[in-house]
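Request from the bench team (R.T.):
"We need a structural guess for the complex before ordering more adenosine-5'-triphosphate. Sequence and SMILES attached. Just send the tokens back."

Command: build protein-adenosine-5'-triphosphate structure.
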Amino acid sequence: MENIVEVNDLAKAFGNKQALNGVSFQVKKGETFGFLGPSGSGKTTTIKILTGQVRQTAGTANVFGIPAMKLAKPAFRQRFGVVTDNSGLYERLTIYDNLKLYADLYHIAQKRINEVLEMVNLQSEYKTQVQKLSKGMTQRVLLARALLHKPEILFLDEPTSALDPANSKHIHKGLKELNRQGTTIFLTTHDMEEADHLCDQVAFLHKGTVQLLDEPKNLKRQYREDIICVELKSGRELELPLDASSAADIERFISEEIIERISTKEPTLGDIFVEVTGRELV
Ligand SMILES: Nc1ncnc2c1ncn2[C@@H]1O[C@H](COP(=O)(O)OP(=O)(O)OP(=O)(O)O)[C@@H](O)[C@H]1O
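Reply to R.T.: structure attached below.
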């Protein structure tokens, strides 16, 4: 599959602060790629470089096969969407008027405004002034605006960090649908469940470099503890090795019909992150 993003040995220093230090990864066209890391690990900086807002100190960052810095040019603005926290919304205007301004700028039909409002669950609030919105609602307006022009790739910096579970779920559904329709999604998150649910591939960013990159299911398989957990009807819980040595015990439990539940111990992406980096994802 074709790569839509190619990053090689990317570095960025702010004065003597080295935010990124040799980051490399590729994002394939059509996938949802999760860029995971604790606060201050360089996630936003990477999005800013990839969307032409910040220039790297070293290395290369190409999007659509061209240097990311060129994405700031008008010719490329239609091809990607980006949601970071620098809002750029007009506070005194309503949600609808903010979206309308943007739609007019890019010659987008009004019908699309209603579609994106539905995607972010703001259909009934469209007349509300932006200055009266909660952080989560503002986040959803920004996402709606980024979706208006149907970008080929969407860069989302912590898309659900300010949302309640119901709205997060709604956005996740919308992002899955968007991805199904062919939009490539690059998202940063602290939320390991979100990453697991949405992403085809995840990269763990720590100390300015990518420490691990794979599909969530491969990572979970690779880091799985080889243990079978057996809960008996009596309430007793046993952990047995996941190999032939447990077969006789399990066969006996089955024949005696005393098993309540049997499962393998699968690590979460959060567990794996801690194991690989020695750091919690906060
Ligand atoms: N404009 C800037 N000037 C100086 N330092 C900066 C600037 N932008 C980012 N940094 C520093 O670079 C590092 C990476 O910041 P970045 O915002 O990319 O992290 P992040 O992973 O997005 O964090 P968070 O999850 O908290 O948003 C941090 O140490 C931050 O203080």
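Two things stood out. Residues 165-180 form the longest helix (16 residues). The chain has two domains: 3-220, 225-265.
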